[in-house]
Amino acid sequence: MIRLIVNGKPHDIDVEPDTPLLWAIRENVGLTGTKYGCGIAQCGACTVHIDGVATRSCGMPVGDAAGKQITTIEGLAQNGTLHPVQQAWLDGDVPQCGYCQSGMMMAVAALLKENPKPTDADIDAAISNICRCGTYLRVRAGIHAAAAKA
Amino acid sequence: MTYMPKIDRRAFLISSAAAGLSIGFNIPFEDEAAAQGAPPEVNAWVVVKPDDTVVVRVARVEMGQGSLTGLCQLVAEELDCDWSKVTWEYPTPGQNLARNRVWGNFQTAGSQAIRQSQKYVREGGAAARIMLIQAAANAWKVPASECSVSAGVITHKPTGRTTTYGKVAEAASKLEAPKEPALKDPKDWKIAGKPLKRIDTIPDKITGKQVYSIDIRVPGMLNAAIKDCPVFGGKVKSFDAAKVTGMKGVKKVVPVGETAVAVVADTWWHAKSALEALPIMWDEGPNAKVSSATIADMLKEGLTAEQAFVGNKQGDVKAGLAGAAKTVEATYAYPFQNHATMEPMNATALWTQDRCEVWTATQNAETALAVTAAAAGLPPNKCEVYRVHLGGGFGRRASSHDYVQQAVLIAKQMPGTPVKLIWSREDDMTHGRYHPITQCKLTGGLDKDGNLVALHMRLSGQSIVANLLPQLLRDGMDPFVFQGLNPGGAEGAIGYAIPNLLVDHAMRNTHVPPGFWRGVNNNQNSIYLECFMDELAHTAGQDPLAFRRKLMANHPKHLAVLNAVAEKIGWDKPAAEGIGRGLCQHMGYGSYVAAAAEVSVSPSGELKVHRIVAATNCGHAVNPQQIQAQIEGSFVYGLSALIHQECTVKDGRIEQQNFDTYNCMRIDEMPKVETIIMPSNDFWGGVGEPTIFVAAPAVLNAIFAVTGKRIRSFPLKNQDLRRA
């Protein structure tokens, strides 16, 4: 049994410790907002926060996440209020197919926590998630919009 | 926890309550309505609930391209309902079959979702409006002509009495539908034509609640991972199931057709782990000898072959070239590319002896149903396919439903147990339906004044249609390889009048399966033609815009978009120091597109695309804001392909396995995109693909302008861009 604390709630799950955190979250905890895209930490679709740090969960063994504070897209909104990044995504009509956007928003939320007013160069350096629909211009505008409101 | 596709929620509630199959989604709308007291449909397209919520039935699927919103706008416009109360649902292909295809074609490809269905969905909305007004008039015992409607509120004008759609919907549903109701003039549109936000985003796509096919769970479901023969056309020789059947969570190891093996387990990760440990022997067959080099040689031979299919012939190209003052020749090559949708291929299937149900992401649920029925060994009316929004399509989920077939073949070996098959990214990369590989030899003839008098484009390479839809070949010819190069027609006509022109195709097919890749054959055709036009202009010592304009007098719509981008980028003024400019135009899927690009190349050869100006005339612009999103995104898709992407073949298999060797543009490479939407309001064109055509050639021509280098083989990552 491994105890995962996801979005503030403990989950005791029967899983081998070398299982990727991504699959433990999706299959054992049952939260599917975190997406599988590549399995080798290339695309960022599986990004979650581990103790506040953006982490590609497909590359992390679940055993290493035990006991840590894990936040997934389902936990980004607080007390029914959308996170500023989610609000900016709504306002800017950012998603197209939307599949990458959980990971994208989690990466951006972590960036804004570290760097509340990122420049374009900061964004280029920090955000490397793949979006095949090509929402990057709206992602960038959304980041600036969320930063302006924070 | 069980996640269900949106449309099935009510049916699920019913079937959960009923005994029988654990998940019986087989209740059609009418029975369901009767069983639940649910709101009856006014017609096939429109359901109005008592609270005035309007449910629009949408046949074409949403995969990011925004047509779900556009189609709802068109229905709502004619319906005159309150847009804030509009929602949607997907009818299933089984319901479409049972109701004599009342929703028409489900295919969502070829940028056709709106342009091919706009008339009948608008008529659906208009008919519903007429019926709803008539129902109110009947209740008031007044002539319908004395009633008007606005935002779903019906008013009897002489008395000022009002009612709402929700109150009269049931009565309206019993009235006879008017035939061919008149449609509004787009000039009077209030909902369509407006830059509305997507209706599929709020709120699920930002909260993680959106259920994609990969997220679906049905009670008692198991998971499967699959390994298909790495060489296309090869087969499974043997596998040793005993080696893995004792591994944790493993339920069964099953053959899938002749080419693949799957492990079924409690979780996908257990299935995948066991699959990695499973010894499999392959019979790779003769294709194992094929490589990128052997394919390139075969295509090269086609460039000068005697036999070729003629797609466009004007005048006499041989004589034209012979009489030219100067001839120019160049050969281009375009690689295999994978669609790389963010959501890998997957499907969930439940098979019993008398029924088979599938939950999946598909660009054509009717084809998915046919594939399901064939694999299940059941008639289509004993099968059903439930669809959800796609995590990307780009043509992959229209080209082949191999993943659906596999899921059903696996489920058939586990009767009564639903099984979800998920491909790994590696499966997806190595078993795609690839952008066709082609080469093109262009020979142009200029007269003494530098006018283009003759052009021969010899295409050599794969035919998608020959592989996927051979019934569409015409005496062996694939008409689709000439996309954008046709002499005329609404679909994709060449924009230049060239007195002696020959466009022909030497079909050279490979064992690597081709597919419809967003933009399809327009992608390479526009590079070949538009880069070569640039070559010709420079050889003639003429400005590339002026050179093109001389040939475009009879093609005003092609010219208008080209002029628009040239004006906005400031073509008449020199570019900034170190910046190169390029432009191009193309027509496809009924729309006219052009782009201009500004790029720089560092001394070490690093490309930066600074600025793009893009113009689109798609006829009617149903939602300019979503069109803008498609145009912006098209540069990501098109420039990712140009800069980073190729699938190479070694020992008969695709070498690239994942995004580390098949890269995609990230945000740091994204140029600024300025969009010009210039609808001429006299036709209906597509939006999701056309701008892809002009992404690459505009940038390539700009690279030449700044480096003097003409790149004719892709992707750019293989090329040295340092100044010549």
Task: Describe the model.
The complex is a heterodimer of chains A (150) and B (724). Helices cover 37% and strands 14% of the residues of chain A. Chain A has six helices and five strands. Chain A has a five-stranded mixed sheet, sandwiched between helices. The N and C termini of chain A lie far apart (39 Å). The model of chain A has no long low-confidence stretch (mean pLDDT 97). Chain B is α+β, with helices and mostly antiparallel strands and 724 residues long. The longest helix of chain B is centred in the first third of the chain and has 23 residues, at 118-140. In chain B, 58% of the residues are buried. Classes of the chains: A alpha+beta (150), B alpha+beta (724). Chains A and B meet through helix 1, helix 3, helix 4, helix 5 and helix 6 of A and helix 7 and helix 19 of B.
Say how many strands of chain A there are.
5
Range of strand content of chain B:
15-25%
The string of secondary-structure elements of chain A, in order, is EEHEEHEHHHH
Q: How does the helix and strand content of chain A classify structurally?
A: alpha+beta
Helix content range of chain A? 25-40%
Kindly report the average pLDDT value of chain A.
Answer: 97
Count of runs of 4 or more consecutive helical residues of chain A: 6
State the largest interface: A-B, 58 and 63 residues
Secondary structure tally, helices of chain B: 20
Rg of chain B is: 27 Å
**Sheet with most strands: strand arrangement of chain A:** 2-1-5-3-4
Quaternary arrangement of the chains shown? heterodimer
